[in-house]
Design brief:
Helix content: 40-55%
Strand order of the largest sheet: 1-2-3-4-7
Structural class: alpha+beta
Number of helices: 17
Strand content: 15-25%
Distance between the termini: 62 Å
Number of strands: 12
Largest sheet: 5 strands, antiparallel
Oligomer: single chain
Radius of gyration: 38 Å
Shape: elongated
Order of helices and strands: EEEEEEEHHHHHHHHHHHHHEEHHEEEHH
Length: 404
């Protein structure tokens, strides 16, 4: 990375006015002297950068490790380069002025009213003038804060005239931002605006002016107020209504809505619990309905018994003994919804051996034995179990939906 000095200049390229920022650096033990253009902006406001990196502690640095000289779109903020605040610049030369006016001859009146300007300021005025030629009037009136101000340019003519009339009546407003001007135009004082902005910048917090006045600039009260508004919305109060937006006693109002939130959340928990209970009952009933059709369908082969789980407890027992995810993967719900059928294989004494998932098409989905070991070969059921399952499938042919 190279520390450099930055300068800028204006040229015409491809019919557009373009401002370049050039980085220059002297020779050191690590690198030789050099220069390269690192930033450009045209009269459409399009910005490009190259060979440039930004470090919070060091500022803009030149990085020559880039493989080519491609110009890239600006991904962050290049304000210092755009405004020229880091550039050691001189006022526009006659050659630069002529280049600008060759492309935009009518811009000469704006330049004349602006007086001596540097390249960055000339580009700022030019891009604003291209968007709205009324920029010339603002420059002539020395209203620099309104030049290129998008909010001002979007105002209707009547509103713009009102702003300009206010500035004529209030000479100090020439130095104010548009936000401050419109604030005072609403009948409030510059002192109120300054105090409000100081409060916001000191704490880095968003806070509307009416809230700032209501809280009398109390930072600690703002935390309680924001919490109060959040909870008031939560319980359905209209926080745009002055009664709820600005309660007479914030602490009492905060405590009141906190209790309302507690009651609402308790009611919601109860409703969720009731709904969960209802769903479990429904699942159990559907499970039993499905199982009922298969309970008597058993096959005995190779000393093993193939059957359907008799109830939900038997599924839980099978899952525990064989370390399977029958419960956590909600195979009980899948059976209740007829998305699969569980078939258990056990010894004659009832010890679980394997579990098979039968899909609606009648095909076998998953078929595993003891899953304590996650090695697939060890989890596969033995030959006797596979033969027993095949016998059950051949005899009962489970199928309740055509394969897709």
């Amino acid at each position: 990375m190279i520390h450099a000095q930055f300068t800028d200049y204006i040229v015409v390229q491809d019919g557009k006015v373009v401002r370049y920022v050039e980085a220059r650096w002297p020779a050191t033990k690590k690198h030789s002297a050099g220069n390269v253009t690192v930033y450009r902006i045209d009269d459409e406001g399009t910005e490009k950068v190259r060979y440039l990196d930004y470090h919070p502690m060091c500022g803009y640095m030149v990085d020559l490790d880039f493989e080519d000289d491609t110009w890239y779109n600006v991904s962050g903020s290049c304000r210092a380069l755009r405004t020229g605040s880091i550039c050691c610049s001189s006022p526009l030369t006659e050659r630069e002025t002529a280049a600008i006016l060759m492309v935009h001859p009518d811009f000469k009146w704006t330049l004349q009213k602006a007086g001596q300007v540097k390249p960055a300021e000339a580009m700022r005025l030019l891009t604003a003038w291209k968007k709205d030629h009324r920029t010339e009037l603002l420059v002539g009136a020395h209203l620099d804060n309104l030049v290129a101000n998008g909010n001002f340019l979007r105002m209707k003519n009547e509103r713009q005239k009102a702003v300009l009339a206010f500035i004529r009546k209030t000479p100090e407003a020439e130095r104010w931002t548009l936000a401050k001007i419109t604030f005072v135009m609403h009948g409030r004082t510059p002192e109120d605006y300054n105090a409000w902005q100081q409060f916001r910048s000191s704490y880095g917090l968003g806070c509307a002016f009416d809230v700032f006045k209501y809280l009398d600039g109390n930072r600690m009260a703002l935390d309680m107020y924001n919490d109060y508004i959040r909870m008031a919305k939560r319980v359905g109060h209209d926080v745009k209504d002055p009664y709820w937006k600005f309660p007479k006693e914030l602490k009492k109002a905060h405590d009141k809505v906190m209790k309302e939130v507690e009651r609402v959340e308790a009611a919601e928990r109860l409703a969720r619990k009731k709904e969960a209970t209802r769903r479990e009952r429904e699942k159990k009933a559907n499970f039993e309905k499905v199982v009922g059709k298969w309970l008597k369908k058993k096959v005995r082969k190779n000393g093993l018994v193939v059957s359907i789980p008799v109830d939900i407890k038997s599924v839980q027992h099978q899952a525990k003994i064989l370390h399977q995810c029958l419960v956590s993967a909600d195979y009980i719900g899948k059976m209740a919804d007829r998305r699969c059928l569980l078939v258990f294989i056990a010894t004659r004494e009832g010890a679980p051996v394997a579990t098979a998932e039968i899909l609606p098409s009648g095909k076998v989905g998953q078929f595993y034995g003891d899953e304590r070991s996650r090695e697939s070969e060890k989890m596969k059921p033995g030959k006797e179990a596979r033969e027993a399952l095949d016998a059950w499938l051949h005899k009962f042919k489970p199928k309740w939906r055509k394969a897709a």
